[in-house]
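Sequence in, structure out.
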Amino acid sequence: MSKPMSWGDVVDIVDIILICVTILIVIFVFYVSAAIVAQDWSATSTYALRIFVVSLVFVFVVPIVSDFGRDQELSNLMLLLSFVFLVALVRFVMVEELAVPDDWLASMVISFMGVAMIFLIEVLSDRIFDLGLPSVV
């Protein structure tokens, strides 16, 4: 099991592969979450790009914010702020192209489903495969 990365660590090829796999998993999870909420499984190229942007921000910003909170002993507050930021990001980036009656409710449900599925995948990968994916939740 790999240890969490810190700012001073050198990134090797295995870390890059794990980050790429994590991004792909997060893209898939947000696509499925949004498809379930909007009941539309089609995806245009601009919508795929929007999901990619949300996934990149999720994979790189949430761990930085939660690490900052851990250093200041405010980890629960930082995770809550990260979730609120994710809801706003999903609302203004992804939900713009979805046909849903309430944009904010859809973004909250997509974000909640996404975080729950990512957490489940992270726990399963750790327990079953003993593979430490980069922690995004």
